[in-house]
Amino acid sequence: MILINIDSLSTTELQYIAQQERLEDWQTLDREELIDALEEAFGEQDDEVYSAQKGKIHRNRFCNSLTDYRGDKQNLSDLPGVEPLPETYLDTSIHLLLRDPQWAYAYWSISPDSRQMVFGEDGQAPSSLFLRVQETRIESGEVLSFDISVDREDTQWNINLPNMGSSYLVDLCWRDRKGNEMSLAQSKRVETYPAYWQKHSGELADNYASFLSNFASLVTKEGEIVDNPVIRDLAQQLCKGVL
């Protein structure tokens, strides 16, 4: 198969790809005809690339998602089932997704009513938005928080999580010129957990095989430890002979 999992793609996805590949009359082709046309088109393109690069082919494939293969913005409004996303939503909400133990991704929307309340009818009220990140230590129950200033046009933010072994939630807040604060929306809580070696560092120091398995893939070609707080802390302890 020229296209990976081509049979699992919907007709709309096949039409999208055909449009990007600039196939003629793609609107009139049925599903099987689209598959045949795309396989033929990619086969011809691979032959051309092979002749030019002598086997050194580096091209992306459409697998199981709609991907803008050529990097160009396409007008998809004429595809069946395609509707534009609204510019604003009727509710104010914020969501927090855990990317990895050190980073979370927050995204939010502000309803027209909330935006008018915060920034006034003319949009010029001197109010400011910020994210209040609340951290709760899982073992001790200690609660900490810190604020991140955001612009009124922002709708997303990557948040560094300072400690593993804590749960986090984030409030979308605003502050008026008098210093009064209000939470517009609050996310659900996400949890992180401490790495095994943080509490078993002695095993790492005594077991050379475990040391190699953990550090071999976390060191750059230049011999520098990657930006991982757990590994960095363990490396410092090992270098100082604390363990």
From TrEMBL:
One Pfam family for this entry, by name? Answer: DUF4912
Against InterPro entries, the record matches this protein to:
DUF4912 (IPR032585)
- The protein here is known as DUF4912 domain-containing protein
The domain of life is Bacteria
